Every structure is written in structure tokens, then in C-alpha cells.
Amino acid sequence: MTRLKTYKVKDVALIAGVSVRTLHYYDEIGLLVPSGRSGAGYRLYDENDLLRLQQILIGRSLGLALEEIRLSLDDEDFDYAQSLRQQRAQLVERLGQTHKMINAVDSALTNLGEEERELDLTVIFDGFDPVEFESEVAQRWGETNAYAESARRTKNYSDADWALIKSELDQIWDDAAQAMRQETPPDSYVALDIIERHRKHICRWFYDLSPELHVQLASLWEADERFRSYIDKHGDGLTAWLVSSVRAAGDAI
């Protein structure tokens, strides 16, 4: 029998774009238990484990709860190919919803007689301009490379890109607000998983956000009324909860 290649937890974290702490948490709750251990007791993941992790991350992106994902994956009748087909259909449906949002924006611009005008980001983000704040972060802490990278990426973003960014960010804030209302500790694995999703969101769309810079960004949320006002619309006190969680994630490095 061919022996499957194995990967250490740090390798899996790098491949999948998740934190080591998240993988440890998935192991603890039985969601993703590594298939083996090294002689020194370190977690070893094989390719089947990575396929299961892919399913977990797709499920999370679709808004499924971790327990719901675990139950489906552990079902003896689970069909991996069928699951992928269903997930693809859901992603296509989400894309369709995004296009509907864009059409609504286009309709509004048409009614205003401003089809040719570049979309005003203050409308898309309800007064929250991510490029403005990223520039401010870069200037405050000297992250000129981060600012340059953000400016380079966002320069050519389409209306659809901005709508998708807003949708993703709103989902993260809504999940955080739900966790806060359930009295989830900011330093819990659940909270840190949400924080890691936010960090990856910034990395995907704007610039490479290190955990250390994430802590600095959280300090800006706390200090700047514009940030607090925007974030707390998703839940009273959410900014403080998020800041505590980001700092806990930074301390865990």
C-alpha cells in the first residue's frame, strides 16, 4: 500500500492559509484530527486530512457552523464529490447575488444620470472608506510598503469587487457580533478563528497584514470614532470585543 505524504501542522497552516492555533482547535473539537503523530508527538496530516480541511474551509466560507460541518463530514454516507458539486452550486448562487447587488447599484446610478461617474466608495461602505484608513495606518506606523501595495491593488477594482469586499467584511462582523452576543470570550478559539478570517480578508484584498500590524490596526479601531461607529453598527460594544480578540491573537504568536 502506498504511504501518503504527511505534513506538519505549520506546513498545513501555510498551505491552507489558516493559523496553527485554528488547526489545534479543530483537532481539540474533533473536527480535523490529524491521521498521525511523529515520534516526538507532533501532529502529522496526510492528503486525506487536507481534503477534509478544504471541506471545512469551504463550509466556513458559506457560513456553516463548525458543528454542522463536522456532522456532515462524519456521516458514513458522506459523498465528497457530491459535496463539492453542492458547494460549487452555492458559490455560483452567491456570485449571482453579488451580481444582483451590482445591478442595483448600476440602476441607482442610472436614475441619478451618472452612469459614467466612478462609484463613490462612501456609498458602498456607508461612510467607511477602507483605502483611506489603510493609508492612515501606513502613515501612522510607517508601513509605506503596505500602503503602496494597497493602492496598487485597489486602483483597478471594479464595482463587483467592492461589493464582494463589503459582503465578506459584513459577514465577518456579523459572525463576530453573534459570538459576542453568545458571550464568547475574545481569547477563545472561536473568536480567534473570526479574527484570523478578518486578517486573511485584508491580505486577500489590500496588503499582507501581519499579526503584529493587525494589533496596530485594532488600536486604530479603538481610538478612531469613525471605526467604532462603523463596526458597532453590527453590535453594541463589538469594537471593544474585536480589539481584545486581535490582541489575544497577537499574544498567542
Characterization of the model:
The protein is mainly α. The chain contains 13 helices and 3 strands. The chain has 3 domains: 6-78, Multidrug-efflux Transporter Regulator, Chain: A, Domain 2; 79-117; 121-251, Antibiotic binding domain of TipA-like multidrug resistance regulators (Globin-like). It is 69% helix and 4% strand. The chain has a 3-stranded antiparallel β-sheet. Helix 5 (80-111) packs across helix 9 and helix 10 (189-205) packs across helix 13 (238-251). The longest helix is centred in the middle third of the chain and has 32 residues, at 80-111.
Residue share in helices? 55-70%
Mean pLDDT: 78
Biggest sheet layout: 3 strands, antiparallel
Percent range for β-strand residues: under 5%
Q: And the CATH topology of the largest domain?
A: Globin-like
Can you tell me the number of structural domains?
3
